[in-house]
Amino acid sequence: MITCTICAIGSELIEGSIVDTNSSFVAKAIAKIGVDVKEIRLLPDDKLLVSQVMGELSLISDLILTTGGLGPTFDDLTAECMALATGRQLLFNEKAFLDIKKKLLSKKIPIKKAHERQALLPNDAVLFNNDFGTACGFGVFFNKAFICSMPGIPYEMKPMFENYILPFIKNKFHIQEYFSKEIYFMGVAESDVDEAIRTIGMDSDVKIIINVSKGYVIVRLRSNNGLKLKILSNNLSSHLNKYLLGIDNEILESLLVEKLKEKNITLSTAESCSGGLLGTLITSVPGSSQVFKGGLIVYSNEAKMKLLDIDEKVLRNYGAVSGECALDLAKNVKNIFRTKASISITGVAGPSGGTKDKPVGTVFIGVSLDDATSVKKFEFSGDRDAVRQRSVNTAIWMLLKKLHGI
Amino acid sequence: MITCTICAIGSELIEGSIVDTNSSFVAKAIAKIGVDVKEIRLLPDDKLLVSQVMGELSLISDLILTTGGLGPTFDDLTAECMALATGRQLLFNEKAFLDIKKKLLSKKIPIKKAHERQALLPNDAVLFNNDFGTACGFGVFFNKAFICSMPGIPYEMKPMFENYILPFIKNKFHIQEYFSKEIYFMGVAESDVDEAIRTIGMDSDVKIIINVSKGYVIVRLRSNNGLKLKILSNNLSSHLNKYLLGIDNEILESLLVEKLKEKNITLSTAESCSGGLLGTLITSVPGSSQVFKGGLIVYSNEAKMKLLDIDEKVLRNYGAVSGECALDLAKNVKNIFRTKASISITGVAGPSGGTKDKPVGTVFIGVSLDDATSVKKFEFSGDRDAVRQRSVNTAIWMLLKKLHGI
Q1: Which residues, 6 or more positions from A16, have their beta carbon under 8 angstroms from its beta carbon?
Q2: Helix (H, G, I), strand (E, B), or coil: what is residue B170?
Q3: Which of A85, A224, B211, B268 is the most exposed place for a label (fewest CB within 10 A)?
Q4: Tens of pLDDT along A304-349?
């Protein structure tokens, strides 16, 4: 099996000012073709350290994929590091510079000294196109490894990796078919999924990873043996059928949009404590405009009364965080946007605002489909972010279940 | 200077199914007290590999902070790894188990075999309380290092780290005062900030890191010498005064909410392509309800007409993605929510929907304050996520500038 280490380079990562999302993207994409990711390392812009790590890794990994450090400023050192680590010269690459110049001219950006630095690359490097920025990617062979460096800006790196680097790697390493499945469950505890797997029986040919994310349990299966993987996947899915959310599509909001499109059902939302997060998630799905008509963020009581016709009595007698309010929010937003389905969320996200009866984490979610509207009360644990995230995931899940007729 | 390596443990991280946000949190908090973070490593749930890495790191780091792998399932191996790495026995810890039992009982969760595993800890470990979950944290001394293991669930880890582990570390390592500043600029290129720093002159006693995030440039300064740091910070801030956004507060939306509170100005929003992201960001700030009244997500043209009184003629003559539409959206949403300020966003986030005149990335942002409403057109590069993120950051920035009277 081909082994890989992923390195994200940049002092801003090490000092915690930026969350590295590149490595997980690369890890997922490379694991899908059966490459064994050994480790992810986040390194500072430190020429000696990065060079040393590259040297060490080149003896134990077949593939080293790095992101970051290809920009035009003085702390962008990746090209220098790779030259140093592999004993190559750093040369002015005419081809790379012409490409940079062309891109800057087309955007009418004046060429600066700093941009010339971006064309200084290790001798005999393989170049990879950057369709969305000036820093080109490059790869060098050293010891047993192919070391491949990509820019750190996600929207430059991702298409470069998918369109140019991944095909290059597949071809160079003669990569064989590999099988993987991701099974998503909701409404069940991690420990129960663990027990289910023990009951069914594990198979040493199938690698199993369980984890919890955004309120659902994910079981990842990987194997060279497609049949064994399929058997285990089928057994597990039927054993926990009640909680099965989907296979190989992790994104709850995509599942929802897909289902709504399939059934030709339009959707609107009324959000209080989630403040627009539900709308954000739904509209993050390309093409969601086909089914999502819009939403109201009613953060204040006035807005709830004025825009969503919530009766003052409801607010006085039960409060804005109540089943009664959630019910009316869901019903009324559906009428306003004239949609077939709607979701409402009202709760206490914290850190303050909690009471004895309604502690932080108390959230009411209303879901309406055709003539039926129902409301559920939840007590989510976690901080403000966690409560909001869980609320919207649960809300999407509730509507999904309804659409599935569960 | 005390050195530290941060390790996030979990195969789900290595396979890219989860983005590790814990390490950046820990890195930021520990760098703030002057500890030098050397590297962040993401490791799989592999007992031998993790033990080996711990052994190696314990010879070169004073502090090793790990997250993850303390859960109750069979792939949670951190306690075993630490015992193996440090030559300790794994013992049933009565104190830890009593604590777990108490927590489970209070939540009426039945105690399972898996929970007992969580009380198996290395001999003579220092325990750290988990106020929001069952897995307690623990630390062991080995070689030159203190190895400290925390749970992977962010809302369990963060308070444990801040309330128990950080004070323990400060005390144990006699940590001295250290100075740091983060300066935020907007509307200026990274390369121009780089040039400004060269012009002012660097100081070898002050560590400088520049990077770009969410459309603004961040300069981080760190030093043992408070005076030198202050001089450099002042020089840089005044040199680039026009673009100065803030110091030591990175979060644009917090700055906005703070400013609105200070000036007692209420806010509403009208969002099309951003689909609620603006509302989400604003309401992610605790206490935002004091100034944010609510928003409308008007994804369809019908919704724009019906809910925000956009004239059909405007949509027909100029389109929903137009300055005219953005202007009316901003004006009308302000009237509906009766707020003093408002923001509107309408654009083409992509991947489809672009035309020759209005390619993907074209976004109109309207900002209204008191009687004045203005609109700007932008062409953002990047994918759907990037366009949406840039739109809302720019929108917040535009209103911030108005509130600052720029």
Answers
A1: B23, B24, B25, B26, B27, B28, B29, B31, B37
A2: helix
A3: A224
A4: 999 999 999 999 999 999 999 999 999 999 999 999 999 999 999 9
A324 in helix, strand or coil? helix
Chain-chain contact of A297 with B21 (C-beta, under 8 angstroms): no
What is the bridge-based pairing of β-strands A137-142 and B179-186? unpaired
Residue from A318, A331, A272, A276 nearest A298 by CA = A272
> CB–CB of A279 and B276 under 8 A?
yes
Measured between CA atoms, how close is A248 to chain B, in angstroms? Answer: 12
Q: How much is the CA Rg of chain B, to the nearest whole Å?
A: 26
A120-122/A216-223 β-pairing? unpaired
Q: Give 3-state DSSP helix, strand, coil % of chain B, rounded to 5.
A: 45, 25, 30
* Cα separation, A398 vs A327, whole angstroms: 14
Asked if B220 has any chain A CB less than 8 Å from its own CB, the reply is yes
- Which chain B residues have a beta carbon less than 8 Å from that of A12? 209, 211, 213, 218, 220
Q: At A313, is the secondary structure helix, strand, or coil?
A: helix
Fold entry, domain B180-247 = Alpha-Beta Plaits (3.30.70)
Beta bridge partners of B147: B64, B140
pLDDT tens by residue, B127-161: 999 998 889 999 999 999 999 999 999 999 999 99
Q: Is A345 on the interface with B (CB under 8 A)?
A: no
pTM of the predicted protein model = 0.78
The residue ranges of every structural domain in chain B are: 3-172, 180-247, 252-403
- Token reading at B248: 């030591």
Measured CA to CA, the distance from residue B93 to residue A306 in angstroms comes to: 58
For residue A24, give the nearest of B16, B112, B209 by CB distance.
B16
CA distance A379 to A28: 33
CA pair distance B397, B379, nearest whole angstrom: 16
Q: Domain A3-172 is in which class? A: alpha beta
Count of C-beta atoms within a 10 Å radius of residue A324:
19
Asked if A287's CB is within 8 angstroms of B211's CB, the reply is no
> Between A190, A275, A303, which is nearest B337 by CB?
A303
Contact by Cβ (8 Å): A78, A37: no
Domain A179-247 sits in CATH 3.30.70.2860: yes
Tell me the ipTM for this assembly.
Answer: 0.77
The CATH H-level (homologous superfamily) assignment of domain A252-403 is CinA-like (3.90.950.20)
Structure confidence by residue, pLDDT tens digits, A157-172: 999 999 999 999 999 9
Query: Per residue in B285-338, pLDDT tens?
Result: 999 999 999 999 998 999 999 999 999 999 999 999 999 999 999 999 999 999
Which stretches of B14-136 are assigned E, i.e. beta strand? 36-43, 63-67, 90-92, 120-122, 126-128
Give yes or no for residue B38 having a pLDDT over 90: yes
